[in-house]
Specification:
The chain is of the alpha+beta class and 180 residues long. The protein is built from six helices and eight strands. Helices cover 42% and strands 15% of the residues.
Length: 180
Amino acid sequence: SMTSVFTFPPFHSFPPSYTLQPVKATQAKQIQLWSSLILDFCRFSNKYQIDVVEWSQNSELFNNKTVQRKLSPEFVTLLLDSLAESGNAKWLDKKKSSALIIWRTINDWATALYQWASDSSFIGTVFTVHELSEGSVVEGTEFEKLPQTILLEALSLLEKRKKVLLFQSPTSSGQGVKFL
């Protein structure tokens, strides 16, 4: 049965996981484990943004009350830097206080979006970008509440592939999208 509680991997309950390991090989493995966990956790809980200080203090992702350990904001920043290098995160400010989490690559989002439009018989239909991220048409789909930054990147990738046409909407201030 589908459980709505996220299951943390064993390393999350291992106190040394919360301290950056000095040995480079161990550290690389540690960063990889945490990075995968961040993506899994955000995908599971449908979260797209991590506020470094807030999450390092309060999120169950970076805090394990049972073993009384939490990740420092510096460690969280290091992990998000690593995710940014792989294209799975994007800093939202120069100070690196919060990041957008891209738990699915832009390519995957683009493919899923076009597949959805095709399955829903929306080829040839015009939408606003706003409708595709917050409209009733995407209610209950994986695109509901998708940050516009990610949506726009996916749409411009589809435009390069000649699968959508993006245009300035004449009626509203937003952008229009037509699936081709």
